[in-house]
Amino acid sequence: MLEKMISLLFLIGSLTYLYWAQEFTFGTLGSPKSGFLPNLAGILALILSITVIFRQFQYKKSANKDAVDWTKFLFILIGLVFYLMILSIVGYFVATFIFLFYLFKVADTAGWRFPLVVSFCSSAAFHLLFTYYLKVALP
């Protein structure tokens, strides 16, 4: 029931946002004005809200709900605190690599090769993006 109420709240919020976004001039696709992106975001939020509402009303509750695993949540919080502590010591690339690898292992990802490769590639991609493309210094 709570999920349905939250879905309806998102629908009302999307409609309100779209209503207020109409105050900006839209322009055209070739020459967008200040209201182009807010209107586009409002329409997408409205579509997503309606989709979520339909899925919530079609969803049938199962008799036994899955229990929330609070230990994984706690381990993620501990990892995040550790990440913030070592970020200034070892730098962005190494700290992010360690943190992503840790998250993969907390999420019970099988094997070692896949988490290592994805963690390294993600850290390298973000490092290259921010350092060379956006020219922003990382810690």
From TrEMBL:
Keywords: Membrane, Transmembrane, Transmembrane helix. It comes from the Bacteria. InterPro entries: DUF1468. The chain crosses the membrane at residues 34-54, 74-104, 116-134. The keyword Coiled coil does not apply. Pfam families: TctB. Residues 7-139 form the DUF1468 domain. This is Tripartite tricarboxylate transporter TctB family protein. It comes from Pelosinus propionicus DSM 13327.
